[in-house]
Design goal:
alpha/beta; Rossmann fold; 2 domains; 7-stranded parallel beta sheet
Length: 367
Amino acid sequence: MKYYIISGEASGDLHGSNLIKELIKKDPKAEIRAWGGDKMKDAGATLVKHFKDLAFMGFYEVLINLRTILKNISYCKEDILKFSPDKIIFIDYPGFNLRIAKWAKKNKFNTIYYIAPQLWAWNERRIKKIKNHINSLYVILPFEKDFFEKKHNFPVKFLGHPLIDSINNFNKIYNNKKEHLDFGNKPVIAILPGSRKQEINKILNTVKEITVYFPDYEFVIAGAPSIDNNYYKSILKGVKINIVQNKTYELLSISKAAVVTSGTATLETALFKVPQIVCYKSSFLSYFIAKLLVKTKYISLVNLIMNKEIVKELIQNNCNKNSVRLELNKILDKNKSQEIKSNYIKLISILGKSGACKRIADDILKT
């Protein structure tokens, strides 16, 4: 069978790679073309476009890159027609994917959405596009099932969260390794600044100013695979912070605390039971528009799933060196750290059992 998979971000690359592995196990003769990243390529897909050329953060950034985005949409349609897949699988990335889905449905392709767009957060009107252009929809957050089925009368499938599998698989391998990351005797504070240059720049310019207040800790950046080390160094400008590439899970495994941008990384950090501060900064225009449109109380998946603030969120102007320093001191305290970890255990219990990727792959094969 032939599959065409479209993802536009690092988190989608991770989820896509695990899905590809399961599809190939079940369908060894599968042909897979994908928009994604190195993980999807390593899993067995032929990579069409890398997400580093697709990831534009915020409303303003999308606007100024609109010409490039439209060219990518045209190229994607042409490539799908040439490949003629049996199934097209979309992974999040709704601005791009829903445009392709509309065209694909008209052209009689089987359209499957894995990792549903977060319509519950903003642009709920997109539900009409989902209903009109998507044959099958999978959700990975427990509350999303009610959102789509009870509120919008659209059937979906919740078969667990694939990150459970990703981290369980990592732990099995990591625990048997003889060599782990080593930064000396100091406890580690991880910095997960995202995978887009805009967000990396804003977060690191804030975090680099507080390292001097924590001399007993080693700060380490989890470098994104699409970003060269020199980019991080150009922002740090002489501030000594270690950088590790493609070793986010290894880093979280040894971290005492973490400073994390919003997104999948907040949930990954929670699954490693690392106390965290969630930081988010964007351009003024993007933030202003987001404030008008986004309807959720929280920006981190951890708080959204639990429906309460169990990790501190520092957003836009509140994401400054004084606030980050204050909140970091709090989560390094033993009692606060234990409180956060206890909430993480409750979070993990509601995400579903392991084996989500296998169940989803099995279901896609039948769809």
